Structures are given as structure tokens and as C-alpha cells.
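Page 42, continued from yesterday. The earlier attempt failed because a stray header line got pasted into the input along with the sequence. Redoing it now with the clean sequence only.
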Amino acid sequence: MTYKEIIEGNILIAEFDGWVLDPNSTPYKPRYTHPEKSTKITDNVVLRSSPDNFKYRESYDWLYPVLEKISEIEYVADIEITPNVTNIYADKTFCHFGDFLTAPWECAVDFIKWHNTLNQK
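This time it went through. C-alpha cells are written below.
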């Protein structure tokens, strides 16, 4: 997997997780804010995060809350994570083989892509 694919996947997960592109950012230097996760420095200044700082593929502490959010969607029946494989069972099954962090991340990315197409209709 390329660095660009990882960044794109992390952005997809971040937006599903509630991060919003800051309207003052530029395409060359995108910045995201989150109503609950952004660090407030003062009343008027919020620390923004760049896509390079999203750790969904590196940290289960970042990814697990997203998997919980996915599991709460009405049409998701179950999420199964084992040391070698991750499955998300919904109207469609998403399955990835790999380690304990890579497979759930890839599953989440594929599920969110599919979920977003459903919500565009």
C-alpha cells in the first residue's frame, strides 16, 4: 500500500469519524477540525490537524472508536476481528486478511466507501 493510499484512507475514516475540512485550509495544506477531538488553545483558536497526523492505521486507540461507530449502524450485523482476519457483516460482507491493525483498517475503509455510496442516493 502506498503512502498516498494510506493518507486517502485515513482522510475517509477521519471524515466518517466527524473531522471536517477547515474552510480556511488550502488544497496544498489541508487542515481538519473536530468538534470534540480538536484541541482548543484559546476561546478563538483551535488546533487543526493535517491528514499526516491521523493515526487510524497506526493506532488501535484511534481506529477502535470508528469500528464501534460502524457497529452501531442499523444495517451492520457484526464486526469480527481475529489476529489474522477482520470481517464486517452488513448487507454486504467486508473481509480482509492481515495483522491486527491493518486488516481492520482496510475493512473500515472499504465499508465506509460503500456506506458513503448508500448515503448519496
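Notes: The beta strands are 20-21, 32-33, 78-81, 85-89, 93-97.
Reminder to self: strip header lines before submitting.
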